[in-house]
From TrEMBL:
It comes from Oryzisolibacter propanilivorax. Its cofactor is FAD. Keywords: Cytoplasm, FAD, Flavoprotein, NAD, Nucleotide-binding, Oxidoreductase, Redox-active center. This is Dihydrolipoyl dehydrogenase. Its main location: cytoplasm. Pfam families: Pyr_redox_2, Pyr_redox_dim. FAD binds at residues 58, 122, 153-155, 322, 328-331.
Length: 475
């Protein structure tokens, strides 16, 4: 006997669980299906973000940053610690506990909002009058029916051809979060968000880390000035980054992994490491969805084809997050999930792709929103730029971390903010002010005129806005 719902959500990652909760808040009967299991076989909602992505990586980054502070920076504060060591299993255990807290929090939110949760894999059965049958295969088999279906099945790590993940020696982000002891040597293929964050974690703990990047420029999506500043900091820390390489072969042996490649000069080179993290992007996850049964359209990458409002080619079927076009960001998925739930309810959900913030949680952190200087040049947009270094910020000096800057880009005629780019301490938090400002079409003058607390890192934002008009007060 099929169970009837108004909305069925497949996937309980950031896009899925948020969509389910918002739909329930709007008065709909909602089911959410997710197959992720914890180490005891129980449900672990939250998707890649909670289980092997955003949340666990930040836990390890925090632990490794504390370790580096204790080893290298406490003495300058007058703190004597003696020999400091890292118990990696305890660090991993703390990370796992943080993940479980988030898993349990989502299950609580489902109960609070009366969302029916089904632990298993969701797949299309068939189209029925006015809706769809969804089959749940897990501990038990269920058949659910609804007129509206939201697909939020996320993405999987992309493997390097000829170097499939074994999660012991050749690692995806999943394996990189579960290394049991600090490797002497670690290779990372790909200098994107995952590669830099995981490389940073294990470098801080003592690994000799080499990052191999195929592109000739470092962080090509980031504002060039900001990327150069970040690269300078990573070089100083001892994170080795080679650009413009072409991987020839990856061979796993008894002593680890051998990577043969051609460097930027066209010369043959090799790298021998104990472990290798492959972080060359992610692919949409439609495995086992049985999309053929209902004629759901996928593109050449395997992503679900949607319009600007996240509608698929099927009436009543929507898709959000990593499994559709656009940036693979947890907060983008959340916004799409909310918007789709509101559209189903007859409201006008909206996502502004131009004001989605990006963050890389290395040290220094990197954050940005809007267009880069190179994009504005390519588009022929006349602009003004202003920047302010954390070196001249009182709070940054007190923290002992003056790396980086805040940079504003504003329209040359209207002064509307077109982009804000940051590298430095806690810029993941500072970027929100820029997002709000851009969402309300603020000018750099607006930010420059707003009172910011002193001493605070946020004063660097105000000063960078002042710099657009060449009138900084503290630099």
């Amino acid at each position: 006997m099929s169970k009837q719902f108004d909305v069925i959500v497949i996937g309980a990652g950031p896009g899925g669980y948020i969509a389910a909760i918002r739909a329930a808040q709007l008065g709909m009967q909602v089911a959410c299906i997710d197959e992720w299991r914890n180490d005891k076989g129980g449900p672990a909602p939250g998707g890649t973000c909670t289980n092997v992505g955003c949340i666990p990586s930040k836990a390890l980054l925090q632990s490794s940053e504390y370790f580096e502070h204790a080893n290298k920076h406490f003495a300058e504060h007058g703190i004597s610690t003696g020999k400091v060591s890292m118990d990696v299993p305890t660090m991993i255990g703390r990370k796992d506990a943080v993940v479980k807290q988030n898993n349990d929090g989502i299950l609580y939110l489902f109960k609070k909002n009366k969302v029916s949760f089904f632990h298993g894999r969701g797949a299309f059965g068939k189209a029925v009058d006015g809706g769809y049958e969804i089959e749940v295969s897990g501990a038990s088999t269920e058949t659910l029916t609804a007129k509206q279906v939201i697909l939020a099945t996320g993405s999987n790590a992309r493997a390097l051809p000829g170097a499939e993940f074994d999660e012991q020696t050749i690692l995806s982000n999943d394996g990189a979060l579960a290394i049991e002891s600090v490797p002497k040597t670690l290779g990372v293929i790909g200098s994107g968000v995952i590669g830099l964050e995981m490389g940073s974690v294990w470098r801080r703990l003592g690994a000799d880390v080499t990052v191999l990047e195929g592109l000739p420029t470092f962080l090509g999506a980031v504002d060039e000035q900001i990327a150069k500043e970040a690269k300078k900091a990573f070089d100083k820390q001892g994170l080795k980054i080679e650009l413009g390489v072409k991987i020839s072969e990856v061979q796993k042996g008894k002593k680890g992994v051998a990577v043969a490649y051609t460097n930027a000069k066209g010369e043959a080179a090799s790298l021998q490491v104990d472990k290798l993290i492959v972080s060359i992007g992610r692919v949409p996850n439609t495995n086992g969805l049985n999309h053929e049964a209902v004629g759901l359209q996928l593109d050449e990458r395997g992503a679900i084809v949607v319009d600007a409002d996240c509608r698929t080619n099927l009436p009543g079927v929507w898709a959000v997050g990593d499994v559709v076009r656009g940036p693979m960001l947890a907060h983008k998925a959340e916004e799409e999930g909310v918007a789709v739930a509101e559209r189903i309810a007859g409201q006008h959900g909206h996502v502004n792709f131009d004001t989605i913030p990006w963050v890389i949680y290395t040290s220094p952190e990197i954050a940005w929103v809007g267009r880069t200087e190179q994009q504005l040049k390519e588009q022929g947009v006349k602009y003004k730029a202003g920047s302010f270094p954390f070196l001249a910020n009182g709070r940054a000096r007190a923290l002992g971390d003056t790396t980086g800057m805040v940079k504003f880009l504003a329209d040359a005629e209207t002064d509307e903010i077109l982009g804000v780019h940051m590298v430095g301490p806690m810029v993941s938090e500072l970027i929100s002010e820029a997002v709000v400002a851009m969402e309300f079409k603020a000018s750099s003058e607006d930010i420059a005129r707003i009172c910011h607390a002193h001493p605070s890192l946020s004063e660097a934002t105000k000063e960078a806005a002042l710099a657009v008009d060449k009138r900084t007060l503290n630099f």
